[in-house]
Amino acid sequence: MLNTNIPTLHVDHLQKNFGKFQALKNITFDIYPGEVFGFIGPNGAGKSTTIRTILGILRASGGKATIFGKDVFKDAVDIHKRIAYVPGDVYLWPNLTGGEIIDLLLKLGHSHHTRRTSQLIELFQLDPTKKARTYSKGNRQKVALIAAFSTDADFYIFDEPTSGLDPLNEEVFQNEVLKLKEAGKSVLLSSHILSEVEKMCDRIGIIKNGEVVETGSLDEMRHLTRTVIKVKTQLPTPELETLPGVHNAVMGNNQTLTLSVDSEYLENTMSYLSQKQIISIQATPPTLEDLFMRYYGSTNEVDRREK
Amino acid sequence: MKSEKFQKTFFLTKFSFKRDWLKLSIWSVVLIGLFVGVAAKFNGLYGSKAAIDQIIKTLKSPAMVSLFGKMPNGPYTSADVFASEMTVFMAIIAAIMNYYFIIHNTRGEEESGILEMIQAHAVGRLSNLTAALLESFILNFGIGLIYAVGLQFANLTGTNANGNFLLGLGLGAVGFMFASIAAVIAQLTDNSRTATILSYLVFGIMYIGRMITDVSHPKYTWFIPMGWVEKLSTYKNNNWIPVFMMLGLSVILVTLAFYLNSHRDIGSGLIATRPGRAKASAFLRGPISLFWRLNRVSIIVWFLGIMILGATYGSVFNTIGDILKTNPMLKQLLNTKAINAANVLIIKEFIAILMIVFAALALIPGLSLINYLKTGETKGYLEIIHSTRTSRTKLYFSLFGIATITSIAVLFAGIYGLYAGGNAVMNHHIAMSVFMRGFYGYLSPLLVMLGISAFLIGWLPKLTSLNYGYLVLAFFVQYFGKLLKLPDWTEKITPFGFIKHVPVSNFDVATFWWQIAIAVILVIIGYIGYRRRDLIIN
Ligand SMILES: Nc1ncnc2c1ncn2[C@@H]1O[C@H](COP(=O)(O)OP(=O)(O)OP(=O)(O)O)[C@@H](O)[C@H]1O
Ligand SMILES: [Mg+2]
């Protein structure tokens, strides 16, 4: 990671109210140059709202957000010179062609159609002569993605960019993001596709009910959650259920026991199990999916962890 | 087989009423209020023989015939005056209402993808179209019946129940006829914008057709469906044939729409969208060129359409401006020069009335362009633009600029059309400078109206359509104010009321400047609001 100390994006206790409804309660995170930051959370958690606020499309009700050290609302135009954005729902003017829209978006950013643009059109296999009216959802997203990738920006923001892409195009997308990362750019990627986030993101922020409840690298987060252990022992393990930090112990067929263990109690549990003469053992680190389910699931579970 | 195609039609109709109830109520209340309200005033306004004779003379002049239709033969009662003043006007409003609902509920639903979701259920192929038509049928005849009952209560001198129901249901029938026209056109194109433009094109052609035939050969008006409503001859002959003709045509058109609908795929039209260029032209490079590119077809259609309308009005100048036709005696009393002067004055008076028509028509594309700052925002089209280096300042002033230029250009087109059409038929030409007085005079109220929209965009974006309502009010007051003898203050509630009777009188510089000042202030205040508010998304 190319972590310098000056963040590209700095969000500090950001809040946003729509009338009485508090869509963002407390959003705090930073993104550094050369970093791909994954932004995940359940529907309606406030991902798009956060993105629109840092784009200066919405005006924050409280807190602070800066990009390149500048205020996201006051200096929006200045900031926008150096960013590229792909919205979650791409709406294109129905009577323009994809090619025209790509060029227009580039020109609005004072750049123009380059060899790279044509290359991207090729890579994503878009027919630029079709009117936007006739594009499928995936094709509309491609138009916005091609425009964004052929812009030479310092900060790229993607709001669920691959929700309509087929696996081939998704791979093209991932490759392009990796290139950006290698070039030292910052990327904010909001997504519901966990495998994608897991694969590409250096750090992850989990947002729920308008609050960022967790940020960190996947490794760091793993420490916060449970490891799944499959174990077969010679002797019975009657006390297992009552050990601190052990959950969901289930006896499967052929005497294999499956249980999940809070990271901080892993050592404790292992020493108990080793007294019972382990025949075979297999430990799976939590996937992002497990992590995710924990935060997405009922609020109680998060509360329990905090206790 | 048959019933399968119409499965769940009634369910969808009920659903449409639930979904549209607010819009339906507003339209109904406004239409009924207008019609019955005017009717209620009429005994007072045109009760006496003298008042009737006076207004009949006006209504019989070719200028008024071109606007309101041909008067039947006398003698006349208050009811006759009412019928001739209101029939064509109410038919026009009915067209606007039906076009809106039908295109929105058929092609619009299809475009937004809602229909696809509905059609995936056990719903017949034709159910949605039928539901939209049923809704409009009930709406039109519901309003028509209330008109009739309202007329019964208003009890104008010279009315009878037969005539009241004929007029009410006749207006219902003309409304439904426009609904079925829109239903056919909505099958032809694959998007609602084009459907709307084409529908208004058909309307415009019929309107011009009825105007020309009314002024020259009224019997040819029978060839124009929109003209049938004038042939009701309410309270005189009470002719029901036109009502059946309108219903008959509607049945044919609805059948055609059904046929077209079952022979095409969902989401497509018969006029297919062609592929376009792979790269943007050098011209398409910023907000102004984008908005031009998006709207150029409608702007050009509007510009040419209004010019043709102007030319058509102009082409009746020789009939209108011939005082000797209505009053041959004058030939003995006045010399040629004086007669010419009198003729020119009549024409100028006519132009003065037309000015409000052209100003209102010129504002429609202008207001719709400015409102794109809000509609484009809510529909999501502008989100990606807002994320580029294009500032809000630039967007705001680009749209305001292009809206203003469009409105001014369209106003000019109308006036130029009048000038060209008029001078093509008249022996004694009227100088362009006379027409230009009307043009200059109406610039400032135009800008005030655009300024109000800009202000709403900045501070009350949810209420942007209010300005259309204000425009309709202004139009109504200016157009009908004299005929309905509205009190003087009503004129002053809109910027148009401050404009002296141009081109009869001279262009008033003072009014021009204070109105421009108000417009500028509104635009600036709107800008301040727009710069600091949230953009609205969905
Ligand atoms: N303009 C608005 N007015 C009122 N409420 C809004 C507005 N925009 C968003 N919200 C609310 O704010 C909350 C956050 O919405 P947001 O679109 O940010 O969610 P999200 O995390 O992007 O969800 P998804 O994963 O479905 O895209 C939601 O409850 C939404 O209903
Ligand atoms: Mg979202």
Task: Briefly summarize what is shown.
The complex is a heterodimer of chains A (about 300) and B (about 550). With about 300 residues, chain A is α/β, with parallel strands linked by helices.
List its salient traits.
heterodimer, A: alpha/beta, Rossmann fold, 2 domains, 4-stranded antiparallel sheet, 11 helices, 33% helix, B: 538 residues, 0% strand, globular, binds magnesium ion
Topology:
The complex is a heterodimer of chains A (307) and B (538).
Chain A: E1 9-18, E2 21-31, E3 36-40, H1 47-54, E4 62-67, E5 70-71, H2 76-80, E6 83-86, H3 98-108, H4 115-124, H5 137-149, E7 155-159, H6 167-182, E8 186-190, H7 194-200, E9 203-208, E10 211-216, H8 218-222, E11 226-233, E12 246-251, E13 257-262, H9 266-275, E14 278-284, H10 288-296, H11 299-306
Parallel strand pairs in A: 3-8, 3-9, 6-7, 7-8
Antiparallel strand pairs in A: 1-2, 1-4, 4-5, 9-10, 11-13, 11-14, 12-13
Helix pairs in contact in A: 3-5, 4-5
Chain B: H1 2-5, H2 9-45, H3 49-60, H4 62-68, H5 78-111, H6 114-119, H7 127-154, H8 161-188, H9 192-215, H10 225-228, H11 241-262, H12 287-314, H13 317-320, H14 323-326, H15 330-333, H16 336-378, H17 383-386, H18 392-425, H19 432-459, H20 466-480, H21 509-532
Helix pairs in contact in B: 2-5, 2-7, 3-5, 4-9, 5-7, 5-8, 5-9, 7-8, 8-9, 8-11, 9-12, 12-16, 12-18, 16-18, 16-19, 16-20, 18-19, 19-21
Bound molecules: adenosine-5'-triphosphate and magnesium ion (MG).
Magnesium ion (MG) is lined by residues 47-48, 88, 159 of chain A.
SS-based class of chain B: mainly alpha
Say what the CATH topology of the largest domain in chain A is: Rossmann fold
Bound small molecules, deduplicated:
adenosine-5'-triphosphate, magnesium ion
How many E-type strands of chain B?
A: 0
Poorly predicted parts of chain A: 299-307
CATH architecture of the largest domain in chain A: 3-Layer(aba) Sandwich
Computed over alpha carbons, the radius of gyration of chain A is 23 Å
What would the average pLDDT of chain B be, to the nearest integer? Answer: 90
For the record, give the distance between the C-alpha atoms at the N and C termini of chain B, rounded to a whole number: 40 Å
Helix content of chain B: over 70%
Major sheet description of chain A: 6 strands, mixed
| Spatial gap, N to C terminus of chain A | 33 Å
- Count of the domains of chain B: 2
Element order of chain A: H for helix, E for strand: EEEHEEHEHHHEHEHEEHEEEHEHH
